[in-house]
Amino acid sequence: MPHRRDFLRSAAALPALPLLARRAAGQPPPDVVSFSGLIVREAEPRNLEFPFTTLDRFVLPTERFYVRNHFAVPKIDPADWKLKVEGAVEKPLELTLDELKKLPSATRPVTLECAGNGRVFLTPKASGVAWQLGAVGNAEWTGVSLAAVLDRAGVSTKADTAEVVLEGADQGAITADPKSPGPIHFARSLPIRKARQPEVMLAWAMNGADLTPDHGSPLRAVVPGWYGMASVKWLTRLVVTERPFRGWWQTLHYSYFVREGGLPVLRSLSEIQVKASIARPALGEVVPAKSTHRVFGAAWTGEGEIARVEVSTDGGTTWADATLIDKSVKYCWRLWEYLWKTPDRRGKYTLMARATDSRGRTQPAQRNPDLRGYAIHHVIPVEVEVR
Amino acid sequence: MPHRRDFLRSAAALPALPLLARRAAGQPPPDVVSFSGLIVREAEPRNLEFPFTTLDRFVLPTERFYVRNHFAVPKIDPADWKLKVEGAVEKPLELTLDELKKLPSATRPVTLECAGNGRVFLTPKASGVAWQLGAVGNAEWTGVSLAAVLDRAGVSTKADTAEVVLEGADQGAITADPKSPGPIHFARSLPIRKARQPEVMLAWAMNGADLTPDHGSPLRAVVPGWYGMASVKWLTRLVVTERPFRGWWQTLHYSYFVREGGLPVLRSLSEIQVKASIARPALGEVVPAKSTHRVFGAAWTGEGEIARVEVSTDGGTTWADATLIDKSVKYCWRLWEYLWKTPDRRGKYTLMARATDSRGRTQPAQRNPDLRGYAIHHVIPVEVEVR
What we know:
Two copies of one chain form a homodimer.
Chain A: H1 2-13, H2 19-24, H3 32-36, E1 39-42, E2 47-49, E3 67-68, E4 83-87, E5 93-95, H4 97-101, E6 105-113, E7 136-145, H5 146-153, E8 163-172, E9 184-191, H6 192-195, E10 201-206, E11 209-210, E12 220-222, E13 235-241, E14 255-260, E15 263-268, E16 275-280, E17 286-287, E18 292-300, E19 306-312, E20 320-321, E21 323-324, E22 334-341, E23 347-357, E24 382-386
Parallel strand pairs in A: 4-13, 17-24
Antiparallel strand pairs in A: 1-2, 2-3, 4-5, 6-7, 7-10, 8-9, 8-13, 10-11, 10-12, 14-15, 16-18, 18-22, 19-20, 19-23, 21-22, 23-24
């Protein structure tokens, strides 16, 4: 998709370049919704954020869905592409896209959230892409279950520690990190137990259309309940291993610490933590005094479901229940709203939202530094002005 | 030791401050050999390098031995100090220094090398302390075997994966790394197999005297054959674990990658890699033409012994055997020399040394980037001038 990439580069440099000028430059008319709608956090590799203040529906269109790329988008011809399945399997496989599409498929909505979503709010500043609230989105994915593909190859290990490594075609040298290894592919593993869950998909379609290059065409993983780094894009290889895979993106990156007997121990990031985010009012928004103003957002969690969202309009002193909208869909965000009777007294007010899930987990008030720059799910205040 | 610390700080700022001025400033007369002899790589925490060009003997005096500290030197009163032994043990222990000294002790020479020794030569530049050649030294250590202490506590796990975590009193926040966890202690583990080897010591003395604060007083580990980070200083706790310990200093730091089936997999640094370093002539030294000039250095390895050192005086085109000096002592460096018939023709010449150990391992010519900033043991050229 050279046109889209050129356009993006121009859009980053010249956000206001008019349509006619683009046409004169030989570029296709841009999809205005797509690119004017996403915030460029990094131009190359492309890291684009959904402006969370524009949240307005359960399923986001593809062009409004955040993009998290670690390397340049690999150029893949779907006709030449195959998925290899190897390692501790009885029958190593190579599957074409047509062969995959002949397996029983399903379509399901799944929310993906980047593990670094919210990082821009951390103090001290953490390294990594400075996402605000919108490295999250909910889309409909179509594909085959990973379990079905593993069954065809026949997993030959019974080890409790077995994992499936998912490798992408995206690769390169990690120039930004002076302690990185030589050139590598993006890769991430799942414990065999999670890999066998029926919700874990190898998807070729998003929102009813073939995956776009930015979203992992021709095939990507979709791992419901886990942070987005597990949903490896541009899949080329599955490797079944006997022991946990200690790859770059689950040791030096996308990892955190837990304290065991006073000793901080590294863990690979996995499950999404419970979180509510306020879409509107936006930070600094002016809200009319003595009115009823809608506070609106979404909440999501990992393996459970959202049970409750509370809102505070006084900086966390008091909390009231928000209304959960529609019915709960597992592994999806849930929209919520709260009708705020705004005060007579003008001035700055601090709004907060706090979610609790069906397992009783709730958001912490303070950041735990052992999470490093990931799983940012403490309550983030939104200061607004009542006038 | 506030005096020493104050002195060091002054020394870093004012390396040429004369002795009389120091006395006038109320500072003790500095130990000139100690501090003029070490290169300050970082003043706080203290990271001091042995100038490798001054190598002149098998056992280095303590004041010429490199210092690698991760945090400020902890203040410990040996009378109050105890070593805790806990985790998967039958009988958790607390041992005083006197109790430890009553166990059978031994004195043995051991070479320690920092895993980052030689980092200053890496391109692209790696993060971490910019050691040249001298983050290595050989000293005599006195203490009890770690195995004897573990036997007293009675290791209660039979797991193959069992480890012993060694925790130091040194602690703090890792402010230089924006992805670090909250405040932690220095800690490092050994697989139970290595921990039980008789050569692994808990040492209270170095070169016949109590450990100095910089070298881990009152008790440190000495792990022969492993890079220095395993020889935890200021020991306060041993924790036997069932599973491998994934602490900060063996995952994000002091770790490297190996390729398994094309997948880069993280490993904790452990064994010292075979290496020869040239002490003299020094980089840029002027050497007389048409003479016999002594090329001199040391070579060391991990679990094996040094079998051979070769020298090249033409940038690696031809190699000749160096002479190994004295007899081999396991886990110690071995001094070597080569009598170079210097050429008639004046100009720049590139010297190289290359060691091979008793297991047939030899130094690579090129750096492997998967080693990140560690285990720097490729051949490092020394350019000299023949005049």
